[in-house]
Amino acid sequence: MSLIVMGIETSCDETSVAILHDDTLISNITATQDVHASYGGVVPELASRAHTQNIIPVIHTALQYANLHKKDVNVVAFTLGPGLVGSLMVGISFAKSFAQALNLPIVAIDHLYAHVFASFIQFPNEKHEVPSFPFLCLTASGGHTQLLRVKDFTDIEIIGQTIDDAAGEAFDKAAKILGLPYPGGPLIDELAKKGNPFYFSFPKPKVADFQFSFSGLKTSLLYLVRDNLKDDPGFINKYKEHLAASYQRTIIEILTEKTFKAAETFGFKNIVLAGGVSANSELRKTFIDKGKELGYKIYIPPLSLTTDNGAMIAFLGKILYERGITSSLDVKQYATGEKYKKYHSKG
C-alpha cells in the first residue's frame, strides 16, 4: 500500500509544505519572508504573522503541484520544535485541524533530527545512494551546530555541539559587520570566491573534544574591522572579499577538523553534512575533497533540502508512522532543549 505524507515546517521564517509519495518527493513548496531583511534578522512576531498568511496558500499549492486532493493524504507530519514558539504554533495548529477534519494520524517531528535524514529523500526519476547506518552527521545551521552519532532513525546521540553561537549565526553576524543585508551567509559565500582565504588570520577557539564555539571568532572580526576603520574609512570596501574569504575559511576549518576527527575517533566511514550551512559551496567542496582523500563516503543533500523544508519533515514522519509511532493531539511546541520523542506513542 502506497503512503502519502504531508510535511509542514514553520519553525522559523520559512513556511514550507511537502508531499511525499512513499520515499519519493512529489512537491515541496516554500514561502520565504522578505519582511525581516530590513531588521537584520528574524523578528518573531512578524514571522508568526507571515506564517498565518502563507500556510493555506502553501498547502494548496503543494497539493496542486502534486496533483492530489486533501482527501488523498494519509498522514500529517509537522515540526514540533525547536524554533520560534509563535511560528511553530501556526504550523502545529493547522496540522492538527487538517488531520482532525480528515481523521488522519499525526506525527510530531523535531526538525533538527529531520535535517539529519534529508539526504535520504528521493526525487522522481532521480534515484541516488543513501547513507547506511551507522553514520556521523554534522548539522550546521543558523541556530545549531551539532555532531551526531546516528545508529538508526530513532537512535541519535549528540557527541558534540556549540557552547555558544552556531556556525550559521557566525556567518550572518559577519555579513552584518561588513554591511551586507540579511540573510548574509550566501553573500559571504559569494564574496569569498573573489578573495584570498589566507589574507587575514583569525583565531580558532580552544574548546574540549568535539564542542564548537563561534562567539570569539565573531568578536575577532568585529575588532579587526573596528580598529582598521579608525585609520581607513574605506577598509571594508577595499578588503571585503578577503575578509569574507578568510573568515569563511576559519569556520570551515573548524567544522571540518572536528568532524573528521570525530569520524576517526568513533570509527565512522560514512559522514553526512546537513543544515542550512551545508549550502555553503566551499564547505561542500571541502567535505567532498577531504572525504575522497581520507577514504570517507560523504553525503550532502541538494541545496533545496539544506534549509528548513517540509520534505525532511514528511520523510521522517513517514519513517516513524511506518514503525507505528504517532503523536497525540495534546502535543505542544518547544523552543529548545526538549526531546520530541516523549510525545510519540506506538499504535
Note the beta-strand portion: 15-25%
- The tally of strands reads 12
Spell out the CATH superfamily of the largest domain: ATPase, nucleotide binding domain
CATH architecture of the largest domain: 2-Layer Sandwich
Sheet with the most strands: spatial strand order: 3-2-1-4-5
CATH topology of the largest domain: Nucleotidyltransferase, domain 5
Largest sheet: 5 strands, mixed
| First-residue to last-residue Cα separation | 18 Å
Query: What's the number of domains?
Result: 2
The helix fraction, in percent, is 40-55%
SSE arrangement, N to C: EEEHEHEHEEEHHHHEHEHEE
What's the number of helices?
9
Q: What is the C-alpha radius of gyration, as a whole number of Å?
A: 20 Å
Low-confidence stretches: 340-345
Briefly note the structural class of the backbone: alpha/beta
Inertia-based shape: globular
CATH class of the largest domain: Alpha Beta
pLDDT averaged residue by residue: 91
Structural descriptors:
single chain; 347 residues; alpha/beta; Nucleotidyltransferase, domain 5; 2 domains; 12 strands; 20% strand
Overview of the molecule:
The protein is α/β, with parallel strands linked by helices and 347 residues long. The protein folds into 2 domains: 160 residues, ATPase, nucleotide binding domain (Nucleotidyltransferase, domain 5); 166 residues, 2-Layer Sandwich (Nucleotidyltransferase, domain 5). 41% of the residues lie in helices and 20% in strands. The chain contains 9 helices and 12 strands. It has a 5-stranded mixed sheet, with helices on both faces. A 5-stranded mixed sheet has the order 8-7-6-9-10. A two-stranded antiparallel sheet has the order 11-12. Helix 4 runs antiparallel to helix 7 and helix 6 runs antiparallel to helix 7. The longest helix is centred in the last third of the chain and has 32 residues. The protein is globular. 48% of the residues are buried.
